[in-house]
Amino acid sequence: MNSTQDFDERRSMEAQFLAGELDVLYLAPERLRLDSTLSLLARGEISVFAIDEAHCVAQWGHDFRPDYLALSVLGERWPDVPRIALTATATNATHEEITRRLGMPDAKHFVASFDRPNIQYRIVPKSDPKKQLLSFLKEEHAGDAGIVYCLSRNSTEKIAEYLSRNGVEAVPYHAGLDAGTRAAHQARFLREEGLVVVATIAFGMGIDKPDV
Prior knowledge:
Residues 1-108 form the Helicase ATP-binding domain. By secondary structure, the protein is mainly α. The chain contains 7 helices and 5 strands; from the N terminus they run ααβαβααβαβαβ.
């Protein structure tokens, strides 16, 4: 459920939810500030609340989003519905802040290693960064989807344009692009094979793609 849906789409989705026909209903935390959303949820059957990217509730973190604080209403309005808060980027201090701000004082904490055996870490001296990147993509990951992170918005656009000119399908992604363009590029990345997104850290949170 999000603001891009038109009236008919939203009504259809609400009807499915109330009829118990949905396995999962995705909501942005901002919508929990709306009485209409809370009223809808109160009329349906809910098995569990899953709060993803829960580190966004931590006020000292760079990903802090004030609307995540509204998620504490879930425990207040639905005390008998289980809640699970998930994040891949939380210190012990963040764990404590998450449970406190979400009103989950008795929550059990499950922590796994940050090591990802399917990820290879490599440090390479730079000589000609663009050519090195192009060679890496073409010789080691031809046809693969990928994300190239840059420090500036300008760099994302220049590198995406350079890769596209040299046979690698690439699009930029940064907070300076309008919302429609960002959404379109993200949708392409999730849908298509072999697309490279050249991005700032604005891209990545909530992305679930198995073949990156």
